[in-house]
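Moderator note: this is an archived Q&A kept for reference. The question asked for a predicted structure of one protein chain; the sequence and the answer are reproduced below.
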Amino acid sequence: MTQIPPASPAAKKQIRLNAFAMASPVHHSPGLWRHPEDRSLDYTTLGYWTDLARTLEAGSFDVLFIADSMASNDVYGGSYHAALKVGAQIPKLDPIVAVSAMARVSAHLGFGITSNALYEPPYPFARRMSTLDHLTKGRIGWNIVTGHTTSGARAVGETALVAHDARYDIADEYLDAVYALWECSWDDDAAVRDRANRIFADPAKVRRITHRGQHFQVDAIHLAEPSPQRTPVLFQAGASTRGRAFAARHAECIFVSGPSANVIAPVVADTRRRAAALGRDPKEVLFFSMATTIVGATEEEARAKLADYRRYLNPEAALILFSGWTGIDFSTYDLDAPIRFDDRTQGLVSALEAFSIADPDRVWTVRELAEHNAIGGRGPVFIGSAAQVADQIEAWVDATDVDGLNLSYAVTPGGYADFGTHVVPELRRRGRFKHGYAPGTLREKLYGPGRSRLPQSHPAAAFRPCAAPGVAGREAV
């Protein structure tokens, strides 16, 4: 079992729960798509996604958090061939397309959609998210990413990957543009739907957004009337120094990943301090830590499952993934060489930090990294009976101050079903997990009734109140 340092006395917070997935044959357990109980190869079918949504809602998961990127994973061995051979996050489908179908078979499950702020103009993206927020009745979140691969940059016509910190500068401007569209273009009561007078919307309450920035230009009204949340719930995964600054300003939910509490806790504490310095309530910045669980009726049964899963592992595929994330070709490394931090990398800096400099008490070799990441990715793996897994989760949450888990899987959807069937009732018995969904939008489920919109302390609120009715234009530079 994962060993976690004891927590200091603190109030017991309710543990939140996301499922972590990708529309690909491999997410974070490369090799296990070959397991007879795994349905990863059904990722191209709508039935897989609707079944998954039903499973997650039955288990009272808060959000299905769907990762995505434009990368073709071509770092390991200098080619995409190695990744393609083992299905290491290539191929992958656009996850947004399946959301409407999943929303149709669920009533409460939220959907966290990943989209790159550098690779699509803000105007069509803002409309797409408003559309999904309408169709799901306010259950949409956006995972804001800035890209970390040269292959992804080339795929969208860039000649090179933008430098790490500069990517966040561009994303800051992107957020200003979409905030203006979502928060300012339409007044709440603009769509009057007046049948008697044949008026759908009051033109005096709809205004053009004029954004003239360094990277993006917008000059139009938002094409969607205000959706239940207006701005979707904002997810982000920045754990580097610049990423934390970005997350502290914008994010409501922050995804963190690392193999130990020593890696996670400082990131959480620092980001909360940064959010407080910006005038935000640090308790309302929610952190979700990547983890995987393998649970059985007894510890022996859980360990038998783990032994079975190990027969299908592919540690080389884990290195292929890690190479793609960091931009470092680990095919050239000796397996027993220690992992060293290279501050020249423009890839996913936090991933490299987690296995090099983030924990001074732990030196990882390439072999150990590959073995650790072969099941569930960069987070811990909690193994045992329902009570033992609940013990480990409680200790992890208390030691790191995260608010919940981004739950990865060994096999899908069985890992999620096991968690909902066995671990959720145990956490409920301990008063650490909700007994049912709260009504309302995703933001209301996370923050309480009447909280569908972002609070006044959030930077999006700077775009409210809008210009006076009838005044065209809004400068959002």
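Archived answer notes: The first strand starts at residue 16 and ends at 22.
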